[in-house]
Amino acid sequence: MANSYYDPADLRKFGKITEWSEELGTKFFDYYGKVFEEGALSAREKSLIALAVSHVVKCPYCIDAYTKDGLQKGITKEEMMEAVHAGAAIESGATLVHGVQMMNKYNKLSM
Amino acid sequence: MESILPKKKAKKPMQKSLKARDNELAVTNRQLEILDGGIFADGELPYFKDKIAEIGHFPLRPKKLEILQINVGYMCNQVCEHCHVDAGPDRKEIMTRETMKQCLEVIKNTGAHTLDLTGGAPEMNPDFEWFVEEAAKAGIKDFIVRSNLTIIRANKKYHHLPDFFKKHNVHVISSMPHYTRGKTDKQRGDGVFDKSIKALQELNARGYGMPGSDLRLDLVYNPSGAYLPGDQMALEKDFKKALDEDFGIQFHNLFAITNLPIARFLDYLIASENYEDYMYALVEAYNPAAVGNVMCTNTISISWDGWLYDCDFNQMLDLKVASKVKHISEYNEDVLNDRNIIISQHCYGCTAGAGSSCQGTVA
Ligand code: SF4
Ligand code: SF4
Questions:
Q1: Where in this chain does the record put each Carboxymuconolactone decarboxylase-like domain (chain A) (predicted)?
Q2: pLDDT at residue B1 tops 50
């Protein structure tokens, strides 16, 4: 057994999840592949969205994968960092907007 | 307390070739040992031979010869980090006029429709212009010179090259790693981007690369790091848009080429601890549909000293053709075409994704 929760080499084995549940795994990978195809959004735009979300969900595998994907698509490091900030801004905004709940509760409880 | 802020990196000095550095990879056998050993010898990844045997392509055999690729020398004004030739100003291997004459004989009689001059920087061979003038007389259909662009601006004596190319209706294919300065200079050296832009503008001014022009100007893109090129069409679209909007530059096609794990790129992969991941990525992207069209199936590569190879990569690994005819002095197309192509694990670079050759994708 590995003595850490994350091993970069595990990313290569992602496809193996299908072995323990053929139908669901295959459905997932078909769906996944379809999502990232060129569509109303370009594959390039979707790659940047994926990179931002990877950071928000803090998945080290996804971060590795979509940094590499961005490089392959000729995306610059400035574009990548702006995408990460977009994700981070939503995440911090989502925390801060709960401040209103705190204010409401505070006001309700106070005389 | 340790700061988490990054320390400023020292500027890199101008590189030397592996050969000048006496790097162990300058010995081609060492490169082959690496490509045959490690994760392949362990059985973690399959040998290329076994992969192509699955689809009945082993031994790999040539089809009709279409392209003669002549490497007129390893000297170059640049020392790009990814260079599979290990070229640079310190390389002294240069084709002599004697060998060029032998090549001209072959060019006159070949069934190939394309002549492809490469290097190093082919223009740095002192007999380059003489050779182009003579070769142009043979009336070959497509006459390519692979120019790194900066050479045109490197020295006054090269400033007339765009006119010279035009005069002989040479098809210019040039490398351009990215449409931004930062990425280009990182791969190819400081100042390369600005010089390349200037050279492209000069070629455009002669009519090269303009829409509908017969003066062909194509660009080669190869990744500046341990990753595979993305979709060639999408990249071409991005390059065209950016180069036109920012600099008013036009070109015809973009060829997306995969870096093969040999010479300086192999050195880089090992030093940056990317070698295994890169080989995994190549094997994972293996596309059986590309195998039948890999470059060696329609090309013969000739080295500065007249030896014959299946491709420019095998030339750099010193794997001469497996044929009775091994040298330009004894050239015989029929005998040569009846040979088995020599392969190793670097060949996975030609079959990844949409495939890769000096003319871009193949599948
Ligand atoms: S990649 Fe081309 S331009 Fe760069 S060093 Fe090699 S031969 Fe010269
Ligand atoms: S590296 Fe050379 S021999 Fe190998 S597949 Fe590519 S072109 Fe053919």
A1: 23-101
A2: no
